[in-house]
Write a structure and sequence with these properties.
Elements (H helix, E strand, L loop, with lengths): L2 E2 L26 H6 L2 E7 L21 H9 L1 E7 L5 H10 L3 H4 L15 H7 L3 E7 L11 E5 L9 E4 L14 E2 L4 H14 L7 E6 L37 H4 L4 H9 L26 H36 L6 E7 L4 E2 L5 E2 L5 H4 E7 L8 E3 L3 E2 L3 H8 L14 H4 L10 E6 L9 E6 L2 E6 L17 E6 L17 H17 L8 H9 L2
Parallel strand pairs: 1-13, 2-8, 2-9, 3-13, 3-14, 4-5, 4-8
Antiparallel strand pairs: 3-12, 5-6, 6-7, 9-12, 10-11, 15-16, 16-17, 17-18
Helix pairs in contact: 6-9, 8-9
């Protein structure tokens, strides 16, 4: 078992040595300084749950190992408590780049664009002499900025013979209408090939930052044909919460139908696609269910879903192995930071859910593994509370750069080095802005011991729609006694003082992060009415 680092909590931000937000060549760096800086390879998948990485030791670890991703844990550091502050693809990607919460960077929902004039991590790296590239899934709707080179999938992209928008191929003003280039093959392989090709062409006297973003394992879960028979004779272990009795839940979450049952009906042809209730990309017509009870249908759907999902991940793990082998073969491993993460977590049948969005652990927890042989210890685990707004400041810090004061996150480099900052953050602030049938809008606070969630269930000024029967309510989970979140204790009298303190902390975080909701009087009034 990995050794654990003792980590405590804080709330301070770094400062930036350059004035303003303009990129103006804030500092100069000698060639020696540039070459001494670490290279960075930031590998991010879409919807990869920690439970589907064997280094995290979940119920799937033995049946679906991920040896190449696990290598990063063995040779580096694994974070156990890294969280997305808005568990949906586009907003999380914007927070990772900008170091800002969704309400500050302007990307709150799937439909929001990242402002192409907004300065972010890639610009700062580029200004410091880094060669920068973005390859794979971008999903921020506007032309990638701050990258010397980019090839990105249009929106979600395709698993087979994927199309890419390529820098310089078409400079039409409307990025969404740009021409594309088609590559034959499987998307995870193509992204890896393009990444290795770019690495081979870089100036060895300058550091590089490659952001390599996989489409996988996002739905439709179309796996490479070579993995078709993987898990044929395997029974995938079911989560303890698969048949959870939701009687403990509040009115805000009880009425939302479970995703796995709906998926089973979809995949067996018993239910048509509904734009209100379902994702159009969920698969259909692939499950034989004659004679199955509802419970048996859920179990059969779970097996089909998990096997397809894990087969897709097999290609991602293979890709990580190719990158690590390349670094070894080219004597780059020692001074290259390699990070593996996902834009958020993913439900793998827990609470009978798939997808993400909810503030439950499986959804908001991001895998995060980092290896840097020259600068960090190996075979360590970190239990500090980290969020996706902290990632950009940390990469800047590891590259010996300051954090600009407009970033809201804080570098956790000291945490990775085993230091104990006395002021490390004691809580994570989360807000899911979209209000949809499957998940009501909500915000909350996650501390080491507790999780408090307010489902306000309002469509504010976002491009969303909501469930007609959504009701506002609070939920509280005692993570010490109930790590699987199967017992909402908000109404239990013994938690009265805990709730009061958590609400106080939550309000402080909202104010500190500039999200006090003063522009939403309806929400403020609702907050006063719902106790």
């Amino acid at each position: 078992m990995m050794r654990h680092l003792k980590i405590y909590q804080a709330i301070t931000w770094g400062t930036f040595g350059c004035l303003g937000l303009m990129m103006t060549g804030c500092s100069t760096h000698s060639s020696q300084k540039e070459t001494s800086r670490p290279n960075i390879i930031f590998i991010m998948s879409d919807d990869h749950a920690t439970n589907a990485i064997s280094a995290y030791g979940s119920r799937l670890a033995e049946v679906a190992p991920t040896p190449h991703i696990d290598r990063l844990a063995k040779e580096g550091i694994l974070l156990n408590n890294c969280f997305s502050t808005n568990s949906i693809c586009t907003p999380s990607r914007a927070s990772i780049l900008t170091g800002q919460y969704s309400h500050v960077n302007g990307v709150r929902t799937l439909k929001d664009d990242l402002d192409p004039s907004k300065i972010h991590l890639a610009h700062l790296m580029q200004d410091a002499g880094y060669q920068t590239a973005m390859i794979g899934k971008w999903h921020l709707h506007t032309e990638p900025q701050g990258f010397d080179y980019w090839q990105v999938l249009p929106e979600q992209g395709l698993y087979f013979n994927p199309m890419f928008k390529v820098r310089g191929l078409d400079d039409a003003s409307d990025f969404k209408q740009r021409d594309t280039k088609v590559y034959e093959g499987y998307v995870s392989d193509v992204i890896t090939d393009l990444s290795l090709d770019w690495l081979n062409k870089q100036d060895k006297n300058q550091p590089f930052m490659l952001m390599m973003h996989h489409k996988a394992p996002h739905a439709l879960w179309e796996y490479h044909p070579k993995y078709e028979h993987l898990f044929d004779d395997v029974e995938i272990p079911e989560p303890a919460t698969l048949f959870e009795d939701k009687g403990h839940r509040s009115e805000a979450t009880r009425q939302h139908e479970n995703n796995l049952l709906r998926l089973g009906k979809r995949m067996s042809g018993q239910m048509k696609v509904s734009s209100v209730h379902d994702y159009k990309e969920w698969p259909t017509g692939k499950l034989e269910v004659d004679g199955l009870s509802e419970k048996e249908l859920i179990s059969a759907t779970y097996q089909k879903y998990l096997k397809d999902y894990l087969r897709v991940i097999a290609s991602v793990d293979e890709s990580v192995g190719r990158i690590l082998n390349y670094l070894d073969e080219n004597d780059l491993a020692e001074n290259t930071i390699v990070i593996y993460t996902s834009d958020q977590g993913m439900f793998l049948g827990e609470h009978q859910y798939l997808d993400k969005r909810w503030m439950f652990e499986e959804s908001i927890k991001m895998p995060f593994l980092i290896r840097y042989p020259k600068g960090l210890s190996s075979n360590q685990e970190v239990n500090a509370l980290i969020s996706n707004v902290d990632i950009a400041p940390t990469l800047l810090d590891l590259a010996t750069m300051d954090t600009p004061d407009w970033m809201q996150g804080r570098s956790f480099k000291e945490v990775l080095e085993g230091e104990i900052p006395q002021d490390w953050q004691k809580a994570i602030y989360y807000r899911y802005w979209m209000h949809r049938d499957m998940t009501p809008a909500h915000y909350g606070i996650r501390t080491k011991d507790y999780k408090l969630i307010f489902y306000y269930a309002l469509n504010l000024d976002t491009k969303s729609f909501g469930h007609p029967d959504s009701k506002p309510a609070w939920e509280l989970y005692d993570l010490r006694k109930d790590p699987l979140e199967m017992n909402n204790v908000y109404a239990h009298p013994e938690y009265k003082d805990v709730i009061a303190e958590l609400k106080h902390q939550l309000d402080d975080l909202k104010v500190a992060n500039g999200d006090d909701d003063n522009k939403y009087p309806q929400l403020l009034e609702l907050r006063q009415l719902v106790n």
